[in-house]
Specification:
The protein has a 6-stranded mixed sheet. Strands 8-7-12-9 form a 4-stranded mixed sheet, with helices on both faces. Helix 7 runs antiparallel to helix 22 (495-504) and helix 18 packs across helix 20 (459-479). The protein contains 27 helices and 17 strands. The protein has 611 residues and is of the alpha+beta class. Helices cover 43% and strands 13% of the residues. The protein binds tungstopterin and iron/sulfur cluster (SF4).
C-alpha cells in the first residue's frame, strides 16, 4: 500500500462512535484519493433522493497519496457531500494543516454520518478520538473557534470548521480553516452544520507513509527549488491570483453587475497593483513556497485574505470598486463560513432584481452598507430577502419569477465563478460540464481560449476542455495537491509521476491518472443522473440564458454574445468524446471500459442506458 495508510476514520455522530475502515491497494489504485475516494463513497452510501441535510448524507474529508508530504503545495484537503444547493455531487478543496495532521495520524480520509444530538467538535489525536461539547462555540465565528482550539490543543493542531452560515444551513456555506482558506462551495459547510458538527481538530505525530521517503524528500526539495527559479515566481508572490483582475478587464471577461458586462469602470481600484499598495503580508497553505493569500486590512483595520474570485464577486459583480470594503465583506464571509462566490452572485442577483422592481427592497449597485447588512441576513438565513438568497440564485429566481431565471447565473444550481462568458464559448462549456456545477476548477480554459481565438466553437476547444478536466478536475483533485504551481508558474507536470513513483514504489503515468480521472467523472455523472432520474437531460449542462440572449453593451467587445445552437452542438461533441449519450449520460460500454459495470447496473434501475 506504501503511500496510503489504507485507513478511513468512520465517524457516526448519532451514536458518538468511531471506527476504522481499512481499504486495499485495489481500491487505492482504482480511485487514487481525494475526489475519487469521495465520489466512490458517496455513490455507494448515499441513496438517491436522500435529503442533503438528513443524517443519512455523508460528509467526506479526503486526502491523496501525496498529501502532506514535503513537496510543492501538498497541503490540501478535499471536502465533499451530496450538495444541498444543487442536489448533486458537491466538493471543494481547502489548504489546511488538518490534512497534514490527518495523514500523520494515520488516516487517508474521514467519513461522517448521522447527526450529533448537540453541537459537537471531533478531536482526533493519532488513534484517539473524542467528541467534545461545542455548545460554547456554536454561533461563534470560525476564526475564534479555531484560535481557541489551538490554544487548548497546541498550535500544531489542524482545524477545519464552520461559522454561523453552516450552522444556519445556508446552502452555499463552506468549510473554513486558517482564517481565510475556504472550500466546499456547494454547501459542504451546511451539511457539516446539519450534522451539528462545529469543527474537527486533528493532531498526528506519526510519519507519513511512502515507499521511499528519502527519495520523495529529495525530489520535493528539488521541486521547491525549481519553483523558486521560475521567471514568474516573484510577480506571483506579489499579487497571487489578484493580477487576473487586470487580465479579465483587458479581455472583457470581468463579471460586472451580475454578469451584465465584462468590463468594470473601477477595475483599477480593485486590481493587483492597487492591492499591492495595501498589502501587509502573505498567507498560504501548508507545504507551499508560493503562499498566495494576499492580506490587506479591511475597513475595520482587520486582516482579510484576498484572491481573484472573492474580489471579483464581492467587487465588480456587485458594482463595488473599493478594495477595503471588499476585504471587509470577504472577511465576514470567511468568519461566517459562507462562499464568497455564491454570496457575490446572490447579492448581484438581488441588486438586479431591485433595479427591475421585482423585490420591495431598494438595493443599489455598490451600496456597501446595505450589502453588509444583507450578508448578515444571508448568513443567518433570516429576513425576507436574506432567507431567500441563502438558498442560492436558482431558488431566488424561481421565487422572483418575471423572467429572472435568464439572469440567475448558475449551472445545475451552483453559482458561476469569476469569468463572464458572453465572448468565450469554451469557458461556457467548461462551466456547463464541470463536476459540481459552475466552477472554473475543472477546466480553466479561458486563458488558452483568448489566445486561440474565442469566436470558434470547434473540436479543438472540446479537446482542450477534456484535457484540462483530466488534469485539474482529475489529477489535482485526486491527489489533492494544489494545481497553482503548474498553472501559474509553470511547474512541469512530469514532476507528479516522479513524486508518485517515490511515494508508491510503482509507476503511475499521467495516462494512468487520466483513466482514473475519467472513471471518477463517469461516477460523478452517474451520481447526478441517479438523483435526477428521468428528469435528467442535456438541459442540465446548459448555461445561463443571459450569455446567449443579452449582448455586452460596453467595452471593446460590445455587441457580442454566445450562439446557443452552436453551444449545444459543441456540448454534443463533448458528450461523444467522453463516450456519453446525447443526454450526457455515460453509455453502458463507457462504464464497462472504465470498470464500472456495477454502476451501470445500478443506474439502469433509474434511467434507461444507451448501449
Ligand atoms: C474555490 C473557490 C475559490 S477559487 C475562491 S478564491 W480562487 C473562493 N475562496 C473563498 C474564500 O477565500 N473564503 C470564502 N469564505 N469562500 C471562498 N470561496 C471561493 O472558493 C484557494 C486557492 C485558490 S484561490 C484557487 S483558485 C485554487 N483552487 C484549487 C482547487 O480547487 N483545487 C486544487 N487542487 N488546488 C487549488 N488551488 C487553489 O487554491 P472550493 P483555499 Mg478553495 C478566502 O474551495 O469550494 O473548491 O472553491 O481553498 O485553501 O482557500 O485555496 O481565485
Ligand atoms: Fe495554497 Fe496558494 Fe500555495 Fe496553492 S499556491 S498551496 S492556494 S498558498
Amino acid at each position: 500500500m506504501k503511500s496510503w495508510a489504507g485507513r478511513i476514520l468512520r465517524v457516526n455522530l448519532s451514536k458518538k462512535k468511531t471506527g476504522v475502515q481499512e481499504f486495499d491497494s485495489d481500491f487505492a489504485l482504482t480511485w487514487l484519493g481525494g475526489r475519487g475516494f469521495a465520489a466512490k463513497i458517496l455513490w455507494d452510501e448515499v441513496k438517491p433522493g436522500t435529503d442533503a441535510f438528513s443524517p443519512e448524507n455523508r460528509l467526506v474529508m479526503a486526502t491523496g497519496p501525496l498529501t502532506g508530504a514535503s513537496l510543492p503545495s501538498s497541503g490540501k484537503l478535499l471536502v465533499a457531500a451530496k450538495s444541498p444547493l444543487t442536489g448533486g455531487y458537491g466538493d471543494g478543496n481547502i489548504g489546511t494543516w488538518a490534512c497534514v495532521m490527518m495523514r500523520k495520524a494515520g488516516y487517508d480520509a474521514f467519513v461522517f454520518e448521522g447527526k450529533a444530538e448537540r453541537p459537537t467538535i471531533l478531536k482526533v489525536e493519532d488513534n484517539k478520538t473524542e467528541f467534545l461539547d461545542a455548545k460554547e462555540y456554536w454561533t461563534r465565528g470560525v476564526f475564534e473557534t479555531e484560535k481557541d482550539l489551538k490554544k487548548q490543543y497546541g498550535d500544531v493542531t489542524g482545524v477545519v470548521g464552520i461559522g454561523r452560515a453552516g450552522e444556519n444551513k445556508v446552502k452555499y456555506a463552506n468549510v473554513v480553516s486558517q482564517e481565510g482558506r475556504g472550500g466546499g462551495r456547494p454547501g459542504i459547510g451546511a451539511v457539516m452544520g446539519s450534522k451539528n458538527l462545529k469543527a474537527v481538530a486533528i493532531k498526528g505525530t506519526g510519519e507519513l507513509p511512502a515507499d521511499n521517503m528519502t527519495e520523495l524528500k529529495k525530489l520535493g526539495l528539488e521541486g521547491y527549488k525549481e519553483i523558486l527559479s521560475k521567471p514568474s515566481y516573484k510577480f506571483w508572490k506579489r499579487q497571487g491570483t489578484v493580477s487576473t483582475i487586470e487580465w479579465s478587464q483587458e479581455n472583457s471577461v470581468l463579471p460586472t453587475c451580475n454578469y451584465k458586462e465584462g468590463v468594470f469602470d473601477e477595475a483599477d481600484a480593485i486590481g493587483g497593483f492597487t492591492m499591492e499598495k495595501f498589502k501587509i503580508g502573505n498567507r498560504g497553505c501548508p507545504q507551499c513556497n508560493m503562499t498566495c493569500g494576499n492580506i490587506i486590512n479591511d475597513t475595520d483595520g482587520e486582516p482579510s485574505e484576498l484572491d481573484y474570485e472573492n474580489i471579483t464577486l464581492l467587487g465588480s459583480n456587485i458594482g463595488l470598486g473599493d478594495l477595503k470594503k471588499i476585504a471587509h465583506l470577504n472577511r465576514i464571509c470567511d468568519d461566517y463560513g459562507i462562499d464568497t462566490i455564491s454570496t457575490g452572485n446572490a447579492v448581484g442577483f438581488a441588486m438586479e432584481a431591485s433595479e427591475n422592481r421585482l423585490i420591495d427592497e431598494k438595493l443599489e449597485w455598490g451600496d456597501f452598507e446595505k450589502v453588509k447588512a444583507l450578508v448578515e441576513d444571508i448568513a443567518d438565513n433570516k429576513g425576507k430577502l436574506g432567507s431567500i438568497l441563502s438558498q442560492g440564485v436558482r431558488y431566488a429566481s424561481e421565487k422572483f419569477g418575471h423572467g429572472s431565471q435568464k439572469w440567475a447565473m448558475h449551472v445545475k444550481g451552483l453559482e458561476i465563478t469569476a469569468y463572464d462568458c458572453h465572448t468565450t464559448p469554451a469557458m461556457a462549456l467548461a462551466y456547463g460540464t464541470a463536476a459540481s456545477g459552475a466552477h472554473h476548477k475543472d477546466a480553466w480554459v479561458i486563458s488558452w481560449e483568448v489566445k486561440y481565438g474565442r469566436e470558434s466553437y470547434d473540436e479543438a476547444k472540446v479537446d482542450k476542455i477534456i484535457e484540462l478536466q483530466r488534469l485539474r478536475g482529475g489529477m489535482f483533485e485526486l491527489l489533492t495537491t494544489c494545481r497553482l504551481p503548474w498553472v501559474e508558474v509553470g511547474f512541469e507536470l512530469d514532476w507528479y509521476p516522479r513524486f508518485l513513483k517515490a511515494a508508491l514504489g510503482r509507476e503511475l503515468t499521467l495516462e494512468d491518472i487520466f483513466t482514473i480521472a475519467d472513471r471518477t467523472y463517469a461516477l460523478i455523472r452517474a451520481f447526478w443522473v441517479r438523483e435526477y432520474g428521468e428528469r435528467w437531460s442535456s438541459a442540465m449542462d446548459m448555461i445561463p440564458a443571459r450569455w446567449y440572449s443579452d449582448p455586452l453593451t460596453k467595452g471593446p467587445l460590445k455587441g457580442v454574445k454566445l450562439d446557443k445552437t452552436k453551444y449545444e452542438t459543441m456540448l454534443q461533441l463533448y458528450y461523444k468524446k467522453r463516450g456519453w449519450d446525447n443526454r450526457g449520460i455515460p453509455t453502458k460500454s463507457t462504464f464497462s471500459r472504465l470498470g464500472l459495470d456495477d454502476v451501470a447496473n445500478e443506474l439502469s434501475g433509474h434511467v434507461q442506458l444507451s448501449a
